[in-house]
Amino acid sequence: MNASTVAAPGQVRTVPVLAAEGIEKSYRHGMWPGRRQQVLRGVDLALWPGEVVGLVGENGSGKSTVMKILVGALPADAGTITRSGRMGYCPQEPVVYERLTCDEHVELFARAYGMSQEAERRSRRELYAALGFERYASTRADQLSGGTLAKLNLGLALLPDPDVLLLDEPYAGFDWDTYLKFWQLVAQRREAGRSVLIISHFVADEQRFDRLLDLRAGKAVPR
Ligand SMILES: Nc1ncnc2c1ncn2[C@@H]1O[C@H](COP(=O)(O)OP(=O)(O)OP(=O)(O)O)[C@@H](O)[C@H]1O
């Protein structure tokens, strides 16, 4: 697959914001060099502007491994990744600092992203409102519930308005109201031409996705 020439279904001459071709990955287990577990056996996928795609697979099928390779947090054994936009990544386990409040996290991440104070203020207001956790603005991370921590995790990935948002099991800890808010947010991003890749071991609402891929036997198979 060539990221610059392949057209999305129904689209002509668009460039994917993220493309993976022939991704392979194995992990070594134990001390013996021969004991390797081949997890990915040639994963191909492309994410187009304005698309919401689901990558679905059973526990242990390699979803988080794909995600980490896509964001560059883990090297692949073989294959290529092409990225053409700003990436936002929301890992399965929130990476936060226990002693910092939600507001302090936003400040820290906004500075790391190089955002202006005005952009930070606007983005913070929008995210707190969209996910409904403004009342926890001054609460330390170690005092947040699991669901609110998941909202902070998602909010921090969304802060710089990335072209591509990669979410690893994003709604596992959400209550129903937050689940619906989450999908509103995803729909807004799609309308704005942003792309979202969601990985999960289950998909309850297939119609909310533009496409689904099943991760099976180390490959991503269109459903
Ligand atoms: N760092 C590692 N070292 C060795 N094996 C690993 C490592 N990370 C993952 N694995 C193995 O690779 C396989 C795929 O793991 P991965 O976490 O990518 O799957 P997953 O589909 O995200 O699973 P889950 O749905 O349970 O989160 C599993 O068998 C796991 O034990």
UniProtKB/TrEMBL annotation:
A UniProt-annotated Pfam family: ABC_tran
ABC transporter domain segment(s): 18-223
Source species, domain of life: Bacteria
SUPFAM superfamilies, A to Z: P-loop containing nucleoside triphosphate hydrolases (SSF52540)
Protein name from the UniProt record: ABC transporter ATP-binding protein
Keywords: ATP-binding, Nucleotide-binding
Record's signal peptide: none
The keyword Lipid biosynthesis is annotated on this UniProt entry: no
The UniProt record lists the keyword Nucleotide-binding: yes
Molecular function GO terms recorded: ATP binding
Coiled-coil ranges from the UniProt annotation: none
